[in-house]
Amino acid sequence: METEKIKARTVVLDVTNPSSILSAVEWIEQEYGHLDILINNAGVFFDENGVVPW
Questions:
Q1: What pLDDT, in 10s, does the model give residues 26-48?
Q2: Contact 31/9 with Cβ under 8 angstroms?
Q3: Are the beta carbons of 44 and 36 closer than 8 angstroms?
């Protein structure tokens, strides 16, 4: 079986926050120049009572 040598990186992105979007775009452009693939792994954090804390 052949092993794939995939290099994946993560970036925090809050799509409801314009400054978060701009920061992600700037980081991607500086690191790679462009974006080939985006995998959305969205999640929600709940506190110990099952409530979203914001």
A1: 999 999 999 888 887 777 777 77
A2: yes
A3: no
